[in-house]
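Please review this one:
***
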Amino acid sequence: MIPEISLSNVLTPLKIDISPLIDQDSIFKQFDNNLKNHQVLHLTDSILKPEIKTLINNRGLIIEKIDVWRWNTDVERNGPPHTDGDYEKSKGRKAGLNWGLDNETGVEFYDVTFGNTQFESVSDGRTHTLWNFPKNVLPLITWKNKFPSLINTQIPHHIVGPVGSIRYSMTIKFLNNPGYDTILKKLWDLREDLDGWKVSIDNQDLDNIKEIVEEVESQMTIDNTGLHVGYNLPRDKRLLNIMEKFTNKRIKSFRIFSYKKNATLEICRQHKLNQQDPKHCHIDYDNFLKVSPKYALNIPLYGSNESYVDFYKNLGNTVEKFHTDAGSYLLPEDYTKVFFSSSIKLNVPYLIRTDIPHLVRIEDNVERKVLSIRFWDDNGMPSEILNNFIKE
C-alpha cells in the first residue's frame, strides 16, 4: 500500500481540493508566538471556503466546530501519545476531518494493544487520555499529510516533525460526535484509497446494451489481429438513451476493449513482466484535448469472470507515450514512486478512475470484451457522474 497515506480504522485519505482551504495568514496571526507547547483556536465553519462546506453538508454531516492547532513539535515529540477525551469511559471525540497546513510535520498513530492509559490530562477546556508504550514499539503509521484525511482520534497519536518546527493543522468536528465508520460511509465517494465503484445496471439494460453493441459492430470493419484491441463505436442513440437513466453527463465516447485468449499474460511475457508489475500500468490521456479523463464506466460484455483492474498511486511525475490515433497514455517517470492502491474484480459494471496508474489482469486467460463509456465533463466526485451506485 501507499506509504504514510492510509490504514483501516485509523485514517482514510480524501480526494478534496484544499487550496485555498482557509485564509491561513489571518488565522495564524491569532496565535501567541511565544509558544511553549500547543495552542488551539475554536472557530466556526465561516473560515472555510464555500465549496468545502457544501461538500460536507451534502453528505448529511453538520459541522459543530473547527479547531486550528499550533504545536511545538520539540515538546510533542518527547511526550506521550494521547487519545481525545476519557478513553476508559468511552467519552471523547471519536473522529475528525484533519488537514495539515504545512509540508514537514506529521502525526504518528500507535496500536492500543501495546500500550496502557497513563492519566487524563485537562487543559483549555479539553481532555486527553495519555498513553504509555514500551520504547521498542513502532507506530502503526506516520501520516505526513499528503492528503486531507478522516482520522480516528480514539487511536493513540502524537505530533512529529523536524527539530525546531511548528505544526499547523485543523480539524473539522461534527455535531453529535459520529464515529469513524459512520462518517466514512457518508464520504464514501471521496476516498483516495478507493478507486472503483460498483454500478447497478439491471439485466434487461445489460442485455440491450450487448445486443446494440453486436449490431453496431456488425456494420463496422474492425481489425482484430492484435492480442488487445481498442476502438470507438459510433454514438448510437439507443445506447445514449439507456445511459440517460444513469447520468446527466454528456457521453464523449463508447469504446470497446477486446482481449484474445491469454492476452494480458502474453503481453506481460513479451515485456518480461508479471501481471501485477506496476511497469505494466498506464494512465489514460487524451492527446487531442491534453487532459487525463478522470473516470470511465466499464461494462463487461462477455468473457472472463476472473478479470481484475489493479490501481496504483504515482507520487512522482509522468511522461507521455503515443498510443493510438485516438490519443495516448501517460506512464510514471519513476516506478520507485508508484505504490499499489487497490484492486477490483471487473465482472460487473464499475465506474473506475482512469487518471491514476492502472492495469488489466485476466487470471483465467479467456477472451474478454468490455464497453468503456467516457464523459465530456467528468470533473467532480463519482456521485456527480452517476446516480446508481451500489454502496457497499
Summary: The longest strand covers residues 63-72. Residues 11-190 form a domain with the Jelly Rolls fold (CATH 2.60.120). The longest helix spans residues 203-218. The chain has eight helices and 24 strands.
